[in-house]
Amino acid sequence: MTDAMHRPEQQINIPQRYEGNAHSYGSGLAGTPAYAPAALSPLGLPAVPPAPPAPPAPPLYPPMGGGPIGGNGRPRRRRGRLAAAALALALAAGTTGGVIGNALGTDGTPTGTSSATAATVTAASAETITTLSGVVQAVSPSIVTINIQSGRSASLGSGVIISTGGLVLTNNHVVADGGTITVDLADGRTVPATLVGTDASHDLAVIQLADAAGLTAAVLGDSDSLTAGQTVLAFGSPLGLEGTVTSGIVSALHRETSEDTGEQEPQSPFGGVQNQQRTTTLSDLIQTDAAINSGNSGGALVDTAGRVIGINVAIATTGDSTGNIGVGFAIPVNTAKTVIAEITGTAV
């Protein structure tokens, strides 16, 4: 089975609502495993014979285009390029077709999960944040869910509030298809938004919230100071589950990948399009093993001081798997700062 480059755009089919169990990527959306429970013996243990001894583990091989396993290779900016034959790169702005419709309902509001509780959080300095829970409390008010309604379909992604005036940073591929934009805030409000500008070459975009009252802007850090092994947290709305936080480390720096943007290229100046999707190469990315899944696109990758050091953009997948395998990517925040200044005319 060959791997292919694809983007799991999270489409929500509005007209038909699936009333069965909602599953995505092999797991129940509301926490229910997507497998039948084993029969239980009277003692409460699975009524199955003991498993045979596990076969010896296969030898490890370095990924195509990567450095040798063991970490002895010198870091190079282009050594981490992922070959399409080894890994399929999936944009992290989720897609689940009609399946997600049952979990989100027709208005994109999650059902079966707790809604975000309104809270007043004072932005903490690096010195006052001493636990991961403290980081979550400080950063969560700055993370939003972005809903795109276009005709009879809908999609969603994540975003980061970058100014108290209502500017939100996200990925270009979250908003590239156009449509009506609404944003779910951490305090429970849903407000309309408009597109300010995009940078397709870096897969970044800025939108403006119509209601900027009471917003908490994220603190942007310095991605040039990152080193492999640092603890990081990924914030966003995977599978529409707002307020989700996962943890991991910076696995590597200066990765380069190619992603399918899903855009069709013009065939000629006289009109028409080719059935060929445009591929965008992203370089200097942060690689992390913090779980990033469909719907996390545009969310924040944050250090233990509560500073945004990256914008989640893509995940690597193998075979038919489209979920997290521990290889995610984020755009460095220093790159994002440059793009924000170009789009808005204001440095952040």
From TrEMBL:
Coiled coil regions, renumbered to chain: none
Keywords: Hydrolase, Membrane, Protease, Transmembrane, Transmembrane helix
Residue ranges, compositional bias (Gly residues): 64-73
Ranges annotated as spanning the membrane: 82-104
Chain segments carrying region Disordered: 50-78, 255-276
BP terms from Gene Ontology: proteolysis
Assigned EC number: 3.4.21.-
MF GO annotations: serine-type endopeptidase activity
Classification via InterPro entries: Peptidase_S1_PA, Peptidase_S1C
Keyword Transmembrane helix belongs to the record: yes
Feature: compositional bias, Pro residues: 50-62
Protein's recorded name: Serine protease PepD
Gene source species: Catenuloplanes indicus
